[in-house]
Design a protein that fits this description.
The protein is of the alpha+beta class. It contains 1 helix and 2 strands; from the N terminus they run H-E-E. The protein is globular, with a radius of gyration of 16 Å.
């Protein structure tokens, strides 16, 4: 996901609430993913329309990610997915 994929909340209170909820829900990882990101104040307009992805959407999408890529959840069966496992 990039900043222009979706509209991001700009209210600091929205993120403050998300941080508190995630801190309680995910105590080990904390609230890092719920914290405010630069996307909340991204100054650039979208360059192109987003591609709709769903059960009836395009099938020619390849998503490559790591199992521990927290911002992009690993959802088996959702899309065709290549997962890279670290060695060593």
């Amino acid at each position: 996901m990039t900043c222009n994929d979706v509209k991001w909340p700009t209210s600091v209170d929205t993120y403050r609430k998300g941080v508190a909820e995630d801190r309680a829900r995910y105590p080990m990882f904390g609230a890092a993913a719920a914290n405010i990101l630069p996307c909340a104040f991204w100054p650039y307009a979208r360059a192109e329309k987003p591609v709709a992805i769903g059960d009836d959407g395009p099938r020619n999408i390849l998503l490559v990610q790591n199992l521990r890529d927290v911002p992009t959840p690993h959802v088996p069966g959702w899309l065709k997915l290549v997962t890279i496992r670290p060695r060593g």
